[in-house]
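Incident log, support desk, overnight shift.

02:14 A customer reports that sequence design results differ from what the structure should imply. Their input is reproduced verbatim below. On-call engineer (initials T.W.) acknowledged and began investigating.
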């Protein structure tokens, strides 16, 4: 676990959730010590709404190095210690921003025109990127220049609904996952067994309270089924929201004097995929290349027209769309069962998950009712 924490984790302030024998428990990681803060706030949502708050009533569970946290596939489903790291959000709505980088905009247009056919995408990628890629990278969304480029692309027959959200005034914001359905560090992520073209999407995720106050950031894997969304954008829900298709973690890093929204704007996000077949793929995203500022995306996701009483987690998008062939030439990349996916950023740590099919991944059974009943039995609701 220590190898997957930020390089300066002993000087930062972090919030997460542990599965303790008693049930899901919010914790604060401070100076390397794990503090059970359920007596202060029974959920992460409430803790962040109260933040900053006094956590002196919390229970010190020990140094994180001594908790022996392991990925599920190494720890026998967590039975050895009874401890498991959960996704660091609970009652927050999990939202996502799409097509926020020029590269991902081009890839979405390719998916749309290829109708989910990975081989046809190769030829489209070469021609489309050469014609419009550099123009998109230089355009400020919603600007007069963007409007002019739209006119040119329409005239050339190259306009797309994906380009509308890439350079138009309105960002694509969608609901990625139901409340409490996200998996955490060391857990399995799922891809549908009927998908033949899919990939991880490594992203920075901002966490805000009900007022829109952005309190910190974590890492996310917005698992994406490219063939399904490529058939029709109206299948976005089927492509994005499946069992174990949303991973978050390992912890939310809170903003303080040593870590701020400017660190998010400068963040480098790295991706590594290693397969049981010996396949290895690496890549990354630089947040400095995002086309819309992270705080603008938060403002577009919530405000007077849309409230989230328990707060929100917002994926900021990715520029990484793996195109490296894994098998036959022209087929591009797709996951295989057993792949280990690592999403890493120096100040946020490493989110590690292993791929299973959605049908074989542990089913999501603990929802809001189960959480409330558990907290009531523990006398944590006040």
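02:41 Re-run completed on a clean worker. Output:
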């Amino acid at each position: 676990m220590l190898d997957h924490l930020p390089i300066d984790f002993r000087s930062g302030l972090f919030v997460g959730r542990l599965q303790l024998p008693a049930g899901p428990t919010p914790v604060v990681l401070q100076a390397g010590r794990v503090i059970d803060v359920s007596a202060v706030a029974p959920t992460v949502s409430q803790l962040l709404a109260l933040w900053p708050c006094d956590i002196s009533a919390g229970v010190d569970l020990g140094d994180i190095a001594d908790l022996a946290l392991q990925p599920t596939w190494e720890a026998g489903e967590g039975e050895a210690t009874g401890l498991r790291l959960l996704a660091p959000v609970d009652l927050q709505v999990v939202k996502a921003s799409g097509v926020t980088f020029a590269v991902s905009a081009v890839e979405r247009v390719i998916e749309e025109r290829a109708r989910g056919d990975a081989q046809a995408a190769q030829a489209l990628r070469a021609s489309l990127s050469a014609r419009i890629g550099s123009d998109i990278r230089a355009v400020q969304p919603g600007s007069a220049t963007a409007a002019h480029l739209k006119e040119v692309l329409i005239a050339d027959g190259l306009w797309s609904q994906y380009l509308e959200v890439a350079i138009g005034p309105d960002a694509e914001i969608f609901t990625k996952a139901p409340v409490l359905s996200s998996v955490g560090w060391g857990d399995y992520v799922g891809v549908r067994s009927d998908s033949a073209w899919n990939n991880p999407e490594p992203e920075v995720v901002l966490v805000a309270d009900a007022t829109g106050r952005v309190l910190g950031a974590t890492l996310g894997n917005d698992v994406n089924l490219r063939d399904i969304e490529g058939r029709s954008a109206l299948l976005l829900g089927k492509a994005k929201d499946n069992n174990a298709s949303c991973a978050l973690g390992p912890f939310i890093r809170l903003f303080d004097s040593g870590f701020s929204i400017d660190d998010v704007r400068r963040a480098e996000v790295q991706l590594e995929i290693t397969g049981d077949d010996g396949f290895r793929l690496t890549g990354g995203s630089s947040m400095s290349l995002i086309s819309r500022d992270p705080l603008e995306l938060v403002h577009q996701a919530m405000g007077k027209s849309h409230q989230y009483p328990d707060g929100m987690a917002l994926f900021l998008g990715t520029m990484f769309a793996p195109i490296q062939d894994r098998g036959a030439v022209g087929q591009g990349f797709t996951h295989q069962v057993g792949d280990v996916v690592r999403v890493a950023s120096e100040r946020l740590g490493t989110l590690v998950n292993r791929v299973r099919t959605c049908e074989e991944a542990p089913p999501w059974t603990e929802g809001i009712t189960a959480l409330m009943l558990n907290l009531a039995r523990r006398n944590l609701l006040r």
